[in-house]
Amino acid sequence: MGERVAFVGLGVMGYPMAGHLARAGHEVVVYNRTRDKSARWVGEFGHRAVDTPAEAAKDADYVFVCVGNDDDLRQVTTGRGGILEGANSGTVVVDHTTASANVARELEGAARERDVAFLDAPVSGGQAGAENGVLTVMIGGQIEPFERAAPLIDAYARSTRLMGPSGSGQLTKMVNQICVVGVVQGLAEGLHFALAAGLDAQAAMEVISKGAAQSWQMENRYETMVAGRYDFGFAVDWMRKDLGIALEEARRNGAHLPLTALVDQFYSEVQAMGGNRWDSSSLMARLEKSSETG
Amino acid sequence: MGERVAFVGLGVMGYPMAGHLARAGHEVVVYNRTRDKSARWVGEFGHRAVDTPAEAAKDADYVFVCVGNDDDLRQVTTGRGGILEGANSGTVVVDHTTASANVARELEGAARERDVAFLDAPVSGGQAGAENGVLTVMIGGQIEPFERAAPLIDAYARSTRLMGPSGSGQLTKMVNQICVVGVVQGLAEGLHFALAAGLDAQAAMEVISKGAAQSWQMENRYETMVAGRYDFGFAVDWMRKDLGIALEEARRNGAHLPLTALVDQFYSEVQAMGGNRWDSSSLMARLEKSSETG
């Protein structure tokens, strides 16, 4: 039985996520900053597009959000014409933006004043995970709205988990990104060394991927890294945004993140190489370049 | 049908590996620098112990070696009373020491002059892998001796692969260690951040271990890292030895290993904390300490 839902932000993630909600039988009203994308979405999935997040929220029991960063998120939530202007009492806002834990707590507080629930719900699994409906969703917030929203989220998620109070979803996503960059930089150095040493990189990866060096990144990225192909995947610009959030949060909670800080700087070098849109495995390209010029 | 084999070096790895050869029906002569260990081995597996590597090699068609480092390896191979003093023409030396690619090539040359084959064959899988006979063996050398020795190595290995000419086994092992330290430091920072942020670390690991952050280290080490337990596993001193070899080799082949060099320094801090024998996942202990005092 379909629910009345709104979806704010039809980017590479939001577009297919909203599509899964439509296919699951919900009544979906969409809003996107640029109109052509919402028009395209309506052309593909039906339903209707509106001009402001407030309008989208007006008739919705659930409002899903997936925008760029903290500022975008504030704007569509508490800004003029934002979600909280239109939302009815009892609405649940599910925010899939990867943002700071601070903005999550701030917006949860603002929402609560209007008797609206706000869940921070960043995802992992990337564009492919969104398109195939197999995302992992890490949620911070209250249990009651979580339990109401979870069945809807299932339309595009393989796994949905309440991690703790408001902000906990964002904090968990930061843990994910911190672990990822260690794996990727280690893998990049390993492959770079293998090539410099004249080894058959494919054979080396096959042998070591059975043991203590194994990782998802090794299994899914070594071939493209050796081939120097980075025109896909999770963009360096997005990774820098996420690492910026994690490093800022660590400034508050006192965590010591030397590798994360270093790799963040390496990504700035990839950006300087023109790699803003390259996959985050392009740390390898930076090493190969250092070697050429070194 | 049993072969005549010698085993030189009955440390935590060599002791059970030689045991697997004995159980597989080979006639095993053992040598160890300290006599009590070879006496204990003979007490457990039968056969006999001798006083020098040369004596061990005298009646053997295959000589297995597993000692500490480059110097130990040179000593037992080309030193006085070493393997090449006793080995007959046609013998195959299989060296399981993790050593430099340079010493592998040097000893392969010295062996060839006496018509003896020398394979560099470092392993991964640790003490548990040696005890359970499920090691991964990465081999450098000629194909003919590799094919002769492989069925014997199967006594304690799950996977044995010829990686290329002499030195290629060692180079592959270095790739493994480079990848491992990136994963471990990233995981340590992720867990350290999770604790500082007040997350349920177990829940966070369960959620993110399904995706792009997944690794063998995450699956097998996060619980002990959160508990601060490091009294097991692959010791920090051994990891530093291996990283020293990798960084030295990179000095020659021009590979750029900033993360590896940094984590090597972090391990020196773990040593300064008294962690020489701690598992290499103790990079986490260093972060927790920095946080306490920082």
Descriptive labels:
homodimer; 294 residues; alpha/beta; Rossmann fold; N-(1-d-carboxylethyl)-l-norvaline Dehydrogenase, domain 2; 2 domains; six-stranded parallel sheet; three-stranded mixed sheet; 14 helices; 56% helix; elongated
CATH class of the largest domain in chain A: Alpha Beta
Helix content of chain A: 55-70%
Q: Could you say how many structural domains of chain A there are in total?
A: 2
In the sheet with the most strands of chain A, the strands line up as 3-2-1-4-5-6
In the CATH hierarchy, the third-tier topology of the largest domain in chain A is known as Rossmann fold
**Biggest sheet of chain A, open or closed, and with what strands and sense?**
6 strands, parallel
Distance between the termini of chain A: 63 Å
- Name the chain pair with the biggest interface and residue counts per chain: A-B, 74 and 74 residues
Number of helices of chain A: 14
- Kindly state the mean pLDDT of chain A as a whole number? 97
User: Mind telling me the C-alpha Rg of chain A?
Assistant: 20 Å
State the CATH superfamily name of the largest domain in chain A: NAD(P)-binding Rossmann-like Domain
Oligomeric description of these chains: homodimer
